[in-house]
Amino acid sequence: MKILVWLAEGTWEACVDAARDLLDGQVTLLHVIDESLAAAIAAPPTALLGRGTPPATTDLLAAAQQALLDAGAARLGRPAARLPRHGRPEREVVAASADADVLVLARDGDRSRLGPRSLGHATRFVVDHAPCQVLLVWPDQPPALTTVPPPPPNGPAGR
Amino acid sequence: MSTAVAVALLLGVLAFAVARPWRLPEAAAAVPAAAVVVAAGLVPWPAAAHELALLGPTVGFLAAILVLAHLADAEGVFGYAGAAAARYSGGSPRRLLAIVFVIAAVVTAILSLDATVVLLTPVVFATASTIGARPKPHVYACTHLANSASLLLPVSNLTNLLALAATGLGFLTFAGLMALPWLAVIAVEYLIFRWFFADDLATPARRRTPAPVRAPRFALAVLAVTLAGFAASEPLGIHPAWVALAGALVLAGRRLLRRPAGLGGNGRSREVWSLLKAANPAFCAFVFALGIVVLAVSRSGFGALVDRLVPHHADLPGLLAMAALAAVLANLLNNLPATLMLVPPVAHSPGLVLAVLLGVNIGPNLTYVGSLATLLWRQVLHAHDHAPATGEFLRLGAVTVPACLVVAVAALWLGLRVFGMS
């Protein structure tokens, strides 16, 4: 089985753990440098007109990406391919999933209000469009049963 | 005819500054353009000389601040700020955002927006990576606050210095009137960032204890004394540029003296060279030349048009219209020419001048890469690069800029009444 693991800052540990403990197969670790973040760091804002160009910071992003992929590989504890990408994260992930049997990604977004809109927009896009099976993991502990709201009074459960 | 020539020269100078063919400095086009303007008689020589004399202390002040920021970085002030932010965040992306807001606002106010963009932003990215947070909200906070938090002090932004030179406003009056708008804008930006980046900020906190970094006490003390000196210099009749220069000299002197003897003169000459580079003489020349070219535009028919457009009373609608006009012009051209063009017609009214600054300082967040013109030129010139992913930034700007402008104008209006200046 070809397993693609999308590593994103803040949630990647849970994805690596899930790939290691729940799945069996050839793992590829994917990280995407967000191009809009790269642009924000690299491009001089307007107000800097006349001050030349700020020092190139693309190396900074590439080094952080490398470090994250290394940390992922170390946590996985078995051989893994690495896929460093640069672009719009949600689109890069969907494109990279074309070769995979299963994609592992973590939920992001606000977990204090669970409901239809509690997935972050990039995660939502990938879950909707990934051309393979998707394993969606909690970045920390899964929620307790008590987070389920009471059934609406006129819903099917109330009848 | 002269109007067309002056406007064409200004556009050419700005286009060159954005394109920078063969990596030439911006001054390479601006200085010849200024020479043409004077030679063609668009600006008579005495007027040009007066403009240069007016800009002199301003540009010197900015150069001193640039050197001061460079030295603060070399002494580890920014690295220390990043390490402290990582520690006090407790691994929480939300708390880190609040700390980054404070640091970026203070750095921008004291060491100018250049320091925030060039020196602080990479540190903030590294800090977010250290605690395992998604870096986007924090990096965007730096780029946004570099503009919108540059309201407080005259040194925060070159636009402020240019406006200060044209009006009789003192350092302390300026800071007093701008304090409320500054705080209001930062608060609005913070609330919008919390909402806009709720997804990225919701990733769980990972408590890591980064190694403590020793505080660069000497550099921090020099910065604090310099800041106090800005406030104290005015009653003493000393231009604050001298205070900035003194602060820079103290830091530079200590660095040179502490160079290990083994490296000898070589290490020291490299140090001096890096200081000269930090002062950015090409940029200083650019500002002088831009001042002359804009003067030509202002003296032409275009200037008369601007004169008719600007409001004449510093009441609430007048301030709002002035700030909006300045924001539009800052986005059409750039904030430097917008300031040079809009300040002289309203120089009689401190309230209107400050409203111009609200517009030219907050406004650039609307299109981020600069002005609309910058965006277009960039797209034409760098078509082979990655398509600029500006959609998200434009949306963020579209939300923050109008909200910030409105609260800032309201706060300024309030301040003017408290100070009895409206």
Helix content of chain B: over 70%
* Corresponding CATH superfamily of chain A: HUPs
Cα radius of gyration of chain B in angstroms:
22 Å
Number of helical elements of chain A: 5
Overall 3D form of chain A: globular
Structural class of chain B: mainly alpha
Adjacency order of strands in the biggest sheet of chain A: 3-2-1-4-5
Please provide the count of β strands of chain A.
5
What's the CATH C level of chain A?
Alpha Beta
The CATH topology of chain A turns out to be Rossmann fold
- Structural category of chain A is alpha/beta
What does this molecule look like?
- Chain A has 5 helices and 5 strands.
- Chain A starts with a strand and ends in a 22-residue tail after the last strand.
- Chain B is built from 19 helices and no strands.
- About 1% of the residues of chain B have low confidence.
- Helices cover 77% and strands 0% of the residues of chain B.
- With 422 residues, chain B is an all-alpha fold.
- The two termini of chain B are 39 Å apart.
Topology (SSEs and partners):
The complex is a heterodimer of chains A (159) and B (422).
Chain A: E1 2-6, H1 12-22, E2 26-34, H2 35-42, H3 58-76, E3 80-87, H4 89-96, E4 102-106, H5 121-129, E5 133-137
Parallel strand pairs in A: 1-2, 1-4, 2-3, 4-5
Chain B: H1 2-19, H2 27-39, H3 45-74, H4 77-89, H5 93-130, H6 136-148, H7 158-166, H8 171-196, H9 198-201, H10 217-236, H11 240-258, H12 264-279, H13 281-299, H14 301-309, H15 316-332, H16 335-346, H17 350-362, H18 372-381, H19 391-418
Helix pairs in contact in B: 1-2, 1-13, 2-13, 3-5, 3-7, 3-11, 3-12, 3-13, 4-5, 5-6, 6-8, 7-16, 8-19, 10-11, 13-16, 15-16, 15-17, 15-19, 16-17, 17-19
What's the short story on this structure?
The complex is a heterodimer of chains A (159) and B (422). With 159 residues, chain A is of the alpha/beta class. Chain A contains five helices and five strands.
Core attributes:
heterodimer; A: 159 residues; Rossmann fold; 5 helices; B: mainly alpha; 19 helices; 77% helix; 0% strand; transmembrane (chain B); Cit_transptr-like_dom (chain B); membrane (chain B)
